[in-house]
Amino acid sequence: MIGAPPATDEGIYAFNSLMIYLNPPPGNLLPELGTLSLYQALMAWVFSCDINHLVLLRALDALVASIAGFMLYQVTSHESNSKLVGAVIAIIFLITLNDPVFIQYGFKNSIAAASLPLLAAIAIGQRANDIETTVWFAAGALVAISVLLREPFAVFAIAGVLVVYVRASFRAVCAYLLGGVLMGGLILLLMILMRGGYQNLIQSYADLALTFQQIAYQRHALLQSSVAAFAKNALSVLMLSVVSIYWVLLAGTIKPVYVYRMGFWLLLATAPLLEPLLKNGYPYHYASTMFGLAGLVSLGWRAYLETKTEYSRATIFILFLAVLFLTPKITKFNGVYTQYTAQLGSKNAPINWPQSIVQQSNYLLIAEYIHTHSQGNPTVAINGSMLGVIPLAKAKPSSPELAHLSYRYIYSNRDKKSLRAEIKACPPEFIMLTNSSPFQDTKVLNSIVKSIPEYRLSTYIPPSKTRHYGSFDAAIYQWAAGSRDCHRNLKERSK
Known about the structure:
The protein is mainly alpha-helical. Helices cover 61% and strands 4% of the residues.
């Protein structure tokens, strides 16, 4: 699926990687801007390559996800006590997890990367005993890496304290905590030193909370739509999970340990639900429950063999339905490959995307227009959720603060005069405004830009019902007054 047109969230991630690569002044080893962004920092080198950056980022993310998939197999095979059954369960869950509804086309978020050390910690915990403190130390260190790759996974780290205590001992909990604190503290300290301080890091999380507040009006509607989308597209694994709970409870009447193990997997499945309850929740937030559900289904198989000597017709029928429901997903994967990825070998100019794909995507049409109409080394500011336009257009912001005008407007307490002065002091060559902004700020930002006489409306790319992200229109303004010295604040690394 890596050749599909650009999507929104991966564009934000790609922009963050680009900014880490550009490393604006003061030019520390890492730029002192934005949140921790460990995964994006590890991928920033991609922008040193003269290649389709987004496709390469997706390919690398797919590689990481594949290794995480192997770790999921390690977990399911141990819990089901069968390599064959563990492989089948892992494949069912991986096909479900990789539905575009949850991951779009890759690099949408850092869940794949964060799940790798998390699943590794679970795998070694499954095989440990209560006196192996070094194992629990390693588990804590791995969970800490997982949290730093994706901060909301902190719920797993907290749940781990209870799990390790029940699974092993208080001594094991101490080892788990020590491993987590030392590994997490070491990586965090290293990144703070590389950034040259911690003040902006703390402020960036406060700013992030402020932006979440601005779009909180969507929360109720998203709660309904996202849960429905998750249930519809994860129907196979949800069916298997319900059946597994039945068999585990039945086996628990023979061996109570089954009920305790079920409690662990249910805790792992429900812990991620805290994130969409605290902010806008999308289907991929709920997809994080599938790591716990995979373990539950694996335990369900073992429990089934504990209570039955012959395969029941009902169980076989449910398994058949679960596999049957995966068929549309495989068809979807093949459709995306045929329509997009198979075309990547064609001529990829001027922005390293085939024209056949460019014409199907509003994102790419916008990026190509900016790139081809620039006077050289374009600088761009956007609003809404369209940060991905900047790396797609092989551009950069005129200054880090002015990349996202919606954020800047919010951080200035919605002071129009202040934002106008900032733009005048460091004008980007292009300002791209879309009516699809969730911040509902397009009208006021348009008025600010139109009040700056040096900007002229260069073109308007309208909405389209047939193009990918066709609802994301764009009014593109271009600076028409000569020199824009401020753009030199970013290193001239990206050509």
